[in-house]
Amino acid sequence: MGAPRKYLEELKERATRLAIEARRDPGSRTGAIKRIADQLGVHPEALRTWVRQGRDRWWRSSGHHNRRSETDHRTRT
Known about the structure:
This protein is 74% helix and 0% strand. By secondary structure, the protein is mainly α. Helix 1 (9-24) packs antiparallel against helix 2 (32-40).
């Protein structure tokens, strides 16, 4: 049996969504992760990891990684 989770999935999803939305806005981009992490009581590095994982999940699910591989293959041959 693994260790209990420190943060609930709902909190992780909400924090990730807030951080991604804040980083899209140039006016609130700077310091967005630290600011949101402080507001929600999570560690900034945890939130930064969740945002990175969310971005990577989106990248894989959207099919962009497949198109990039095809483009790289065409440019190498």
